[in-house]
């Protein structure tokens, strides 16, 4: 979305306060259109558009306000999505692509429209991404109780389905009176733009209150710029952290999403080059260092590479930057050895994990401060050679996995290789759930920190197409490649219609393996016998389902590829197309990509009559013995 030029704030009269009579919804829209974020001198609209689906809970209030916005000189364009969950993914992806400096508003009706937000909100909050949710709510006056879709809790009329959004929101409020709106709006904007607190922000809007008029102080509509800070870490903490780092012989730096949101990739590169620290990357941190940099050890953790995992396992000091140390990163506590942790993070909550030294601050500022405090210290050159050698070995594994005969049916690894080639350095790959995130983490070669967009905090099926829309809206100059499994596609194909209707061009690669390759494999490994993981009818026969035809029916251009040569040609045609294009490819669900050897804690039945489950339990008990608690006082 284009950032309009900043406008001057209107003069505000002193003495008797100037007032503007608007409905709550009109005031909200006028306010949102005047919010800006600023970091490093760059200003942009904080909320440049509103997505939504109307129903009786928002059509008269927000619907009227949005419809009349342009005529009232208020710039907040409206875009129609097809599923409320999808629009939250779109907003979260938009926020991620803009390094959390901008997001979208999402308006819904009451009842099911509002509860459809919950999954998207959880995803945004878990991924530390700002989204502004504006669900309608039942009458504050209770005059029309019970209104269509009202919960009617017999214990209290105060309970509403929008309460389901409380635990998944970082700020939640219900506007029961117009007077409550100004303070709630300011609190909402503060949380959206605070990198330490951000996540889903919910303002539940009872349908009667939305339409109610009030005399608002003119100042509410003054242009407001939310400065996104770069807090510097405490000097004493940095000195303590530097003492630990400079005593290391085998340091490793874990780059998480915070590195990218902070725009700290140059600072990271400077730090690791000066001090000889290899970098391993989480899903959100992938691309922090170009894959072919001599210190890039690769993807870490359960979806990581054998090389990165070996470096991580042998490290004596782990410098975590902008990572929340999910179980995928730590291999459920089994990856790192007896290491000391130094954690650079914008929140104390994440910095304190694994008993780390808590360097709380902006990633870029903290890396710069820590680098200065480490002076000329560098890791032993022999260590760096070992890391480079491990990396070279893994590069050969990637080459082999991605290689395929042009006339052969595609394997998933070869599909990833072909999409990586087609995407080039700037094309953005989007993915979220299934077996592809693991293969992408290991096999995708990133050279640009914004070109790898795998949502693996919530790993939410249905994110891919909706998220792709958000990415493309935020970066219209980049081609977006959505990699989506058949299971994930079936969760939210509806957003293809949104992409088509909004003219948001995506290249969607639909990888059809007749069910859940990922969970099928997991199921087998835990003794659950692949139950319910293949798309078959009750007799076990393949289904007469044609997902390519489905995509075509939703308005996409569709290309069917059955060989690698057809896939590569299809990807080029899709890139050249002006409309959203789906490239459909079938793959074998039983063919797995290379494994990085890390363990993941998925508890297995302690008692079972099934031999496979008994064996899986024995392996599970062995695996979990390697778990460390990392309680070393920092
Ligand atoms: C909304 C949601 N429901 C369930 C899951 C659990 N889950 C993770 S992957 C997966 C299967 C994905 O299937 P598909 O998209 O076809 O990818 P594949 O595993 O075949 O690569 C399931 C059910 C999830 N991540 N998200
Ligand atoms: Mg599948």
TrEMBL record:
Residues 433-585 form the Thiamine pyrophosphate enzyme TPP-binding domain. GO terms for molecular function: acetolactate synthase activity; flavin adenine dinucleotide binding; hydrolase activity, acting on acid carbon-carbon bonds, in ketonic substances; magnesium ion binding; thiamine pyrophosphate binding. One of its GO terms (biological process) is L-valine biosynthetic process. GO terms for cellular component: acetolactate synthase complex. Residues 50-151 form the Thiamine pyrophosphate enzyme N-terminal TPP-binding domain. Keywords: Hydrolase, Thiamine pyrophosphate. Residues 238-370 form the Thiamine pyrophosphate enzyme central domain. The keyword Aminoacyl-tRNA synthetase does not apply. Gene3D superfamilies: 3.40.50.970, TPP-binding domain. InterPro entries: DHS-like_NAD/FAD-binding_dom (IPR029035), Myo_inos_IolD (IPR030817), THDP-binding (IPR029061), Thiamin_PyroP_enz_cen_dom (IPR012000), Thiamin_PyroP_enz_TPP-bd_dom (IPR012001), TPP-bd_CS (IPR000399), TPP_enz (IPR045229), TPP_enzyme_TPP-bd (IPR011766). Belongs to the TPP enzyme family. This is 3D-(3,5/4)-trihydroxycyclohexane-1,2-dione hydrolase.
């Amino acid at each position: 979305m284009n950032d309009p030029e900043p406008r001057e704030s209107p003069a505000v009269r002193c003495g008797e306060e100037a007032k503007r009579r608007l409905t709550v919804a009109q005031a909200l829209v006028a306010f949102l259109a005047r919010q800006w974020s600023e970091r490093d001198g760059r200003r942009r609209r904080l909320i440049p558009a509103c997505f939504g689906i109307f129903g009786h809970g928002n059509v008269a209030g927000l619907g009227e306000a949005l419809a009349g916005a342009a005529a009232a000189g208020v710039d907040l364009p409206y875009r129609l999505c097809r599923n409320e969950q999808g629009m939250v993914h779109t907003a979260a992806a938009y926020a991620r692509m803009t390094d959390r400096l901008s997001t979208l508003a999402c308006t819904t009706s009451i009842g099911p429209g509002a509860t459809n937000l919950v999954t998207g909100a959880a995803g945004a909050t878990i991924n530390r991404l700002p989204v502004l949710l504006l669900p309608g709510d039942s009458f504050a006056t209770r005059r029309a109780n019970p209104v269509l879709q009202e919960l009617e809790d017999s214990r209290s009329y105060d309970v509403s389905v929008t309460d389901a959004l409380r635990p998944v929101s970082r700020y939640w409020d219900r506007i029961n009176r117009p007077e409550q709106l100004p303070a709630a709006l300011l609190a909402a904007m503060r949380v959206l733009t605070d990198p330490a607190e951000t996540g889903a922000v919910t303002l539940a809007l009872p349908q009667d209150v939305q339409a109610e008029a009030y005399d608002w102080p003119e100042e509410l509509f003054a242009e407001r710029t939310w400065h996104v800070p770069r807090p510097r870490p405490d000097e004493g903490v940095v000195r303590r952290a530097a003492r630990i780092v400079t005593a290391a012989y085998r340091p490793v730096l874990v780059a998480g999403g915070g590195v990218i949101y902070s725009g700290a990739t140059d600072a990271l590169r400077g730090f690791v080059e000066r001090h000889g620290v290899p970098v391993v990357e989480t899903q959100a941190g992938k691309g922090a260092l170009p894959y072919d940099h001599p210190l890039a050890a690769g993807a870490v953790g359960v979806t990581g590479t054998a090389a990165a995992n070996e470096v991580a396992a042998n490290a004596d000091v782990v410098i975590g930057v902008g990572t929340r140390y999910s179980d995928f990163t730590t291999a459920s506590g089994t990856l790192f050895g007896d290491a000391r942790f130094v954690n650079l993070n914008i929140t104390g909550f994440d910095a304190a994990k694994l008993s780390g030294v808590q360097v709380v601050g902006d990633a870029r500022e903290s890396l710069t401060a820590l680098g200065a405090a480490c002076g000329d210290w560098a890791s032993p050159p022999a260590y760096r050679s070992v890391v480079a050698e491990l990396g070279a070995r893994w590069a050969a594994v990637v080459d082999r996995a991605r290689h395929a005969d042009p006339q052969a049916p595609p394997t998933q690894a070869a599909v990833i290789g072909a999409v990586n080639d087609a995407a080039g350095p700037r094309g953005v790959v989007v993915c979220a759930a299934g077996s592809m995130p693991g293969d992408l983490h290991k096999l995708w070669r990133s050279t640009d920190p914004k070109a790898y967009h795998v949502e693996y905090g919530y790993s939410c099926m249905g994110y891919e197409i909706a998220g792709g829309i958000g990415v493309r809206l935020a970066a219209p100059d980049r081609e977006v490649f959505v990699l989506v499994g058949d299971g994930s596609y079936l969760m939210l194909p509806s957003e293809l219609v949104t992409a088509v209707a909004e003219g948001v061009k995506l290249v969607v690669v639909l990888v059809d393996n007749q069910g859940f390759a990922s969970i099928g494999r997991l199921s087998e490994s835990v003794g659950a016998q692949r139950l319910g993981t293949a798309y078959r009818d009750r007799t076990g026969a393949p289904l007469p389902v044609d997902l390519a035809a489905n995509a075509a029916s939703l308005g996409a251009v569709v290309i069917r590829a059955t060989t690698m040569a057809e896939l590569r040609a299809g990807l080029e045609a899709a890139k050249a197309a002006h409309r959203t294009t789906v490239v459909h490819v079938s793959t074998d669900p039983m063919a797995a990509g290379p494994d990085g050897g890390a363990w993941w804690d998925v508890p297995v039945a302690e008692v079972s009559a099934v031999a496979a489950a008994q064996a899986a339990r024995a392996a599970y008990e062995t695996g979990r013995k390697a778990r460390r608690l990392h309680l070393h006082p920092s």
